[in-house]
Amino acid sequence: MTGAKPLVLALSSPSSGSTEAADAAAVIAERFLPDLVYAAEKARARTDDVPREDEEAKLSLMARVGKVLFQRFCVDGSLVSLDAVRDLAEAGTEGSKSPVRKTFHTNLPSDFLDDMERFAVERMGLEFVSTKEHYHVKVVNKQGMVSKMSCKCTMQEDGKLAIDKTELNQIRPLLEDVSCLSKDLDLRLMLNTNRILIDPEVENAIKSLVSSALVDPNARGGFRRPLGNKLIDERFSIAGVWRTNYKTFGNKSLKMYLRHTGRFVQGSSTGEVSNEVSFKLAGISKRLQDGGNQEVDTLKGMLESAVRMIWDYALSYHKS
Prior knowledge:
Layout: H1 20-49, E1 55-72, E2 74-75, E3 78-79, H2 82-91, E4 100-105, H3 110-123, E5 127-141, E6 148-155, E7 161-168, E8 171-178, E9 186-197, H4 200-211, E10 214-215, E11 223-224, H5 230-235, E12 236-250, E13 255-265, E14 271-280, H6 282-290, H7 296-313
Antiparallel strand pairs: 1-4, 1-9, 1-14, 2-3, 5-6, 5-12, 6-7, 8-9, 10-11, 12-13, 13-14
């Protein structure tokens, strides 16, 4: 790394016109939909061809708001030029050998989340669903084929954690970042395969491991754990834990999550706090899961509608 400030793409002149949102949604849907349909078909085929008795897989189409950042690296002792950054960004060229590294920054000002709750919820036609607090414990399997798992937990009165659900390492068949140059924020669209663990033996071992941990923000890694069962300790270890407070708003086709997250990594005395806004395109997710991706025109209309809603109400800081 060079220590240079990350760069963002910006318009040379402001955009205007009442049709901007509709045009943007149409273009994004036109470009993203073929890849989405293909990725969903491949993901379902993979699940059907090689069914696993120890897991249950579900497809979900998610959207996040944040900022696409471009980090320049030195080549022959000099920073890559801004023209090169622009050209690479437009071409989508990145990777380990690229002089420009792209990241998607999802930490947002807390005021923005307040604005989303006060103004955007009603305008997007969403209703309050729930407010919850969960602890997510990252567990590493040191022996099995599946190396990482995430346990969604609730904290009990005695400070111990009880597992609500265990998910295997998430697979992401498709991810697309969209720089929305006329807006304050950018958009990330991603198709996820969420795999829920249903292996009783592994579940019981992980429950034993997690239930022995006591939540303690002052402890290294965010929790304390006494010595436990040697066989379990030899197979599994806790890699990190984070606490998430979130509110859910939604309707039949779209769900919005406002998250305040504090992350702790095992072996580290420091943590990370972030505020995030994400959406689940629930109507499209259900059709993709059920195999309804043959209805391309219907999917396109649903995708355009969801993207336009997010474009209008979730990509600008000021809603009042």
